[in-house]
Amino acid sequence: MSVVVTRRGEKPFTSVEELEAIFADFANALDRLDRARYALVADIRAAPGRNDPLFESVMQRLSPRWLGGFRKVGVLVKSTAGLLQAQRYARKDGISRLTSNDEAEMFRYLTDGQ
């Protein structure tokens, strides 16, 4: 199984509009893949921490466009807070994923059964 890796940079978004525009371009690029043939790593370790209600609401709406349709999904986080936040998103959107701060564990999970 091939693995697609997406990495979040450390630069914060300046507005919700910027976040939505970047996500639209990003999701459209992923849509050009046959998602079902790939596993996905969402590496968000560099992302600035943010959990205000507006951001949470927008991310809850946008995450399925990012993570949906892949054979397996893994989310790499840096902190316990990031782990809890990613797990909260998973409970709400219903997309099965491994959330971890261990890159080796992530790739073992994503490539198991190839």
Number of strands: 4
- Summarize the biggest pleated sheet: 4 strands, parallel
Order of helices and strands: EHEHEHEH
Low-confidence regions: none
Helix content: 40-55%
- Rounded mean pLDDT is 91
The helix tally amounts to 4
Radius of gyration: 14 Å
Give the overall shape.
globular
Measure the end-to-end span. Answer: 5 Å
Strand content range = 15-25%
Structural category: alpha/beta
Please give the order of strands in the largest beta sheet: 1-2-3-4
Question: Characteristics of this structure?
Answer:
114 residues; alpha/beta; four-stranded parallel sheet; 4 helices; 4 strands; 47% helix
Describe the structure.
With 114 residues, this protein is α/β, with parallel strands linked by helices. 47% of the residues lie in helices and 18% in strands. The protein has 4 helices and 4 strands. Strands 1-2-3-4 form a 4-stranded parallel beta sheet, with helices on both faces. The model has no long low-confidence stretch (mean pLDDT 91).
